[in-house]
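Q: For a teaching handout, I want to show students what a protein-ligand complex looks like in token form. Below are the inputs, and the small molecule is uracil. Please produce the holo structure.
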Amino acid sequence: MGKVHVFDHPLIQHKVALMRKTETTTKDFRDLATEVVTLMGFEATRNLPLEPVEIETPICKATVNMLKGEDIAIVPILRAGLGFVDGMLSLYPNAKVGHIGLYRDPETHEPVEYYCKMPTDIDKREIFVVDPMLATGGSAVAAIDFIKQHGGKNIAFMCLIAAPEGIEVLQKAHPDVDIYIAAKDEKLNENAYIVPGLGDAGDRLYGTK
Ligand code: PRP
Ligand code: URA
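A: Here is the structure, written as tokens, with uracil included.
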């Protein structure tokens, strides 16, 4: 079963609390998303493999640890997941970025695919699927299905807020995928929105309704 890692660091909790507030502006929401994902990405990549490398400091030769390759892929689920890409790229500037376009059908709440483009070497990369919200889990499961169809193997899912229902669905469908979240909320409402949540993440990021 994939582990659920909840980032309860006070800075992350504080910034997510600001994002939840109705009066937070689109600009502030976007800036906070980048700040939070940078903090989360720092912690979520704690187990990336290092390798010893010989370098020369101004003082002497030394063997130091450096990341073993830059074998990361970031895969945002469009469109709200795009709000996480810059933060992750600031940590891993050479990461490749795949895109999956999905939206939830407003009636059925089922994910509908409209775009999918993965790096060709996705099978060799540590993959971080990013999306602010894990509600019913339908979008995350469908996105990870696509990535696996393209050969992706080492996959983690990172979001801001998850509902217990979504975590369960994702764990059942993809037990090999670790889940990184900033907050586990109470439940879903009758429209499959997370309670208390932050509303529609895509609309809040891009100022749409
Ligand atoms: C939101 C969110 C997730 C999905 C989560 O996207 O960004 O992708 O809903 O819900 P689920 O777990 O029930 O599938 P939305 O469908 O609103 O599309 P958008 O990003 O284009 O706004
Ligand atoms: N998608 C969102 O953007 N917010 C929710 O609460 C649920 C799905």
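A: Two things your students might notice: The helical segments are 10-20, 26-44, 85-91, 138-149, 164-173, 201-206. Residues 70 and 94 are 6 Å apart (CA to CA).
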